[in-house]
Specification:
Layout lengths: L12 H7 L6 H10 L2 E9 L16 E6 L5 E6 L4 E6 L7 E7 L3 E8 L2 E7 L9 E7 L4 E7 L4 E6 L5 E6 L27 E6 L12 E4 L13 E6 L5 E5 L4 E5 L5 E6 L2 E8 L11 E7 L5 E3 L4 E6 L18 E6 L4 E4 L3 H8 L15 E9 L2 E8 L4 E6 L7 E7 L4 E7 L4 E6 L13 E8 L8 E2 L12 E6 L5 E5 L8 E6 L5 E8 L1 E2 L2 E2 L5 E6 L5 E5 L12 E5 L5 E5 L3 H4 L7 E7 L2 E6 L10 E8 L5 E7 L8 E9 L2 E8 L9 E7 L6 E2 L15 E5 L1 H4 L10 E6 L4 E6 L14 E6 L1
Parallel strand pairs: 31-35
Antiparallel strand pairs: 1-30, 2-3, 3-4, 4-5, 6-7, 7-8, 8-9, 10-11, 11-12, 12-13, 14-15, 15-16, 16-17, 18-19, 20-21, 21-22, 22-23, 24-25, 25-26, 26-27, 28-29, 29-30, 32-33, 33-34, 34-35, 36-37, 38-39, 39-40, 40-41, 42-43, 43-44, 44-45, 45-49, 46-47, 47-48, 48-50, 51-52, 52-53
Length: 760
């Protein structure tokens, strides 16, 4: 289903952002989009806002497991880095408030809630060979410990039974991944197992919800699995309405079901996914979904009951295993629905990973390992619809499924979820779900800290993604959009940057649908072969169906790969390489060419940041005459901020003026500068680019603020992203902006904003 995106004025921008992206994944679930009922992100809580007084703003945080109070108005998350449980007031879920932390004396590993009580798994282990831990009960009102039970080993997941009569705790006693390459069983040179076997503990609760330490029943899980049967490592537990506990033994590739009395009533191998075609399995600076994976062990991590007979698993994988009949690395990159007798009801196989790739969230760096890594799975019936939420850790995505038909789930949405979604909780009575995103890259600014993200089921269009390849002319996994231009044909053309070092491309985008449709990709070639070292940062049309592309160059190899302009044909063949005079490169200090644009025979190119010949806080905008081959330059004054660098990230010509995107390198509330400036060219004279060594000053242009982009960048319910790098302006003056997601790299959320900001 497509919707026409009407032209919008900037005064109506926020309304457009809320309504312009109605989903378009027709092959996923066509009927669902007609209902116009979707989960949308409404807020993102910065975990660093909960830091104790006196803490540095760059203190590492990590929200991992998240749960909610019984009234659904308080979120609780474990933070193992700080050794605390954080509390968040979500009385108004669109405006979460910090409630501080409960400080623990050990690492929290799991948490469950009942009434005014929180039950926390506490890891006190002194070593892998001598694990220990406790179950600690806290009163949420007083924030004080009520009782503590020794668990005898290292706890992981904690779950409270639906009837509130007992808890299940997975005692993982995890392996030392550094010892003999992490192989299990972990045995010494004499064949003796050095770490205690894991198990499940069942802990009774009295009528007041108080834990009964003398009731703890240890459920032995040894001898069940085919892989390392005497070294089980239970990872995750969940309890159904019958009081049955299902537990995943991730490294053992095994699942077990335990009754309320502690008897193992069913157990079975998680099995393998026999074959998945159309996968990317190699880290090579490109997205090539042409490989096959065969006989991959599922190795489930998170799991959830759907009903009393069925549960779902997220098959992250965690273990390398030598078996000639199976893939070397486990983790099938998928999720599965099982009957509790071991029957596979549904296997998602490659579907989720390929869908994620089509919205630009696939990470090449994980292609040769475990792909998008589905880690968590949560079930909830909300407004009468049974939903399954699957978290893909390495994609920053929460996948939403309608599982009315268990053997044919419908993927309805892909929601953005920060970096490393780890845990989830549903609050069905309020139509809310929340994810805890564990990764924190805020140790050294600029960086993004851990977040808790909140979504709400709304009678509204889906607000994400903004750009998709679903229903494109060809399958395209994409990312790292670094520059754009509006074509005369109504299309927008965009380039990827050096993240795709062996796959430079031009993306062809139809912005008339919502979300915008990435129709196809044009590969950049030299003499018919893939062009290399193309760190593309800008694109403009040549007026004859082809393009001019600006490249950043490689700082340490400027002789071989200087900043350059490439003239490219409509089918991607490089026709000409244009490089600046050698004297210009003598002062190279920061990244080189960024945006590029054209007016007639004149190309304009932005130098991102100051070079050695630029005065304080100025950079250059260059000109190149295609007829005379002459270079010119002017100086551009960058805005000043207290911390962090500032630079030009895009340059676009429209109606006698240059439009410049100027930005800092910060995320979220730390972001101070994301803006569009205008340079009227009427009185601007580009002076000839220096041809000698001594530096010189160029005319300083005047700039005028057009648009502060921060409001639109935070209007999507998340935080302000760092890299707004694309600006395309149509002949009618409609402006589109985009962000660079760094190919969903290690420190990226994977999100790409692609928004119409109205007439410029």
């Amino acid at each position: 289903m497509k919707k026409t995106l009407a032209a919008a004025s900037f005064s109506a921008l926020l309304a457009i952002v809320a309504s312009s992206t109605s989903g378009g994944f027709a092959n996923w679930n066509t009927k669902y989009w007609a209902n116009e009922k979707n989960f949308n992100r409404i807020s993102s809580f910065n975990v660093s806002d909960n830091l104790p007084k006196g803490s540095k703003s760059t203190t590492k945080t990590s929200s991992e497991v998240v749960t909610a109070s019984e009234d659904g108005k308080t979120l609780m998350y474990t933070d193992s880095d700080l050794g605390v449980v954080g509390l968040v007031d979500i009385s108004d879920p669109a405006k979460p408030k910090a409630l501080g932390v409960v400080e623990l004396e050990a690492e929290p590993t799991g948490i469950a809630a009942l009434g005014n009580n929180a039950y926390i798994g506490s890891n006190t282990s002194e070593s892998y060979t001598n694990p220990s831990g406790a179950l600690v009960q806290y009163n949420l009102e007083t924030r004080k410990a009520v009782k503590e039970c020794d668990l005898g080993g290292q706890p992981d997941s904690v779950f409270v039974s639906p009837d509130g009569t007992f808890l299940a705790v997975a005692i993982e006693n995890e392996r030392d991944e550094e010892y003999k390459n992490g192989f299990i069983p972990q045995i010494d040179d004499n064949g003796i197992q050095i770490n205690p076997a894991g198990y499940v503990s069942l802990v009774k609760l009295n009528k007041r919800g108080k834990i009964q330490c003398n009731s703890i029943k240890k459920v032995d899980l040894t001898g069940l699995s085919e892989i390392a049967p005497f070294d089980p490592e239970p990872e995750f537990v969940a309890i159904n309405d019958l009081g049955e506990t299902v537990v995943s033994l991730q490294e053992n590739n095994h699942l077990a079901v335990i009754d309320k009395d502690g008897n193992v009533i069913s157990h079975f191998s998680a099995g393998v996914v026999k074959q998945m075609a159309g996968m990317d399995t190699k880290k090579d600076g490109a997205h090539k979904f042409k490989s096959k994976l065969k006989n991959v062990r599922r190795e489930p991590d998170g799991l959830t009951w759907i009903d009393n007979d069925h549960f779902a698993t997220a098959n992250e994988g965690d273990y390398k295993h030598i078996d000639p009949s199976q893939a070397k690395r486990g983790g099938s990159r998928s999720w599965t629905i099982f009957k509790k007798d071991g029957t596979v009801v549904y296997e998602d196989a490659n579907r989720l990973e390929r869908a994620i790739a089509q919205i630009g969230h696939f990470q090449d760096g994980r292609a040769g390992k475990k792909g998008v890594e589905p880690e968590s799975v949560t079930y909830s019936k909300i407004n009468g619809t049974p939903y399954l939420f699957v978290g893909a850790e390495r994609a920053g995505i929460v996948a939403v499924y309608d599982i009315t038909e268990l053997n044919q789930p419908l993927l309805t949405q892909l929601l953005p979820s920060g970096i490393g979604p780890e845990g989830f909780v549903a609050i069905p009575e309020r139509g809310l779900i929340a994810s805890a995103n564990e990764k924190d890259y805020n140790k050294k600014e600029p960086g993004l800290s851990s977040h808790v993200t909140i979504y709400q089921l709304q009678d509204a269009p889906a607000s994400y993604p903004h750009l998709t390849n679903e229903n494109g002319l060809e399958f395209v996994s994409w990312g790292a959009i670094s520059g754009m231009v509006a074509g005369d044909d109504g299309k927008i053309y965009a380039v990827n940057d050096g993240t795709f070092k062996t796959q430079p491309r031009i993306y062809v985008i139809d912005p008339s649908s919502s979300p915008a449709l990435l129709e196809r990709a044009i590969d950049i070639k030299l003499d018919g072969k893939t062009a290399l070292f193309m760190d593309q940062e800008g694109i403009t049309t040549d007026g004859n169906g082809g393009f001019y592309i600006s490249t950043e160059g490689i700082k340490k190899k400027l002789d071989e790969h200087p900043p350059a302009i490439y003239h490219v044909s409509s089918d991607g063949e490089i026709l000409e390489k244009i490089t600046p005079p050698p004297s210009y490169l003598n002062y190279a200090k920061n990244p080189g060419f960024e945006g590029i644009t054209r007016n007639g025979d004149i190309l304009y190119i932005a130098q991102q940041k100051p070079w050695g010949d630029d005065t304080f806080n100025t950079t250059k905008i260059l000109s190149y005459n295609l007829k005379t081959k002459q270079w010119g330059a002017v100086n551009y004054q960058l805005d000043r901020i207290k911390k962090g660098g500032v630079g030009i990230s895009e340059l676009t010509y429209h109606d006698g003026a240059l439009y410049v995107i100027e930005r800092d390198s910060f995320y979220g509330k730390k972001a101070k500068l994301k803006a569009i400036y205008k340079i009227d060219l009427d009185d601007v004279i580009f002076e000839g680019l220096q041809t000698n060594i001594p530096p010189r000053l160029y005319p300083l242009v005047e700039k005028e603020l057009v648009t502060d982009l921060k409001p639109v960048m935070k209007s999507t319910g998340g935080f302000i992203l760092e890299k707004v790098e694309g600006l395309a302006i149509t002949s009618e003056g409609q402006a589109w902006i985009s962000t660079d997601n760094d190919g969903t790299g290690k420190k990226s959320t994977g999100e790409t904003l692609f928004l119409n900001i109205g007439k410029i």
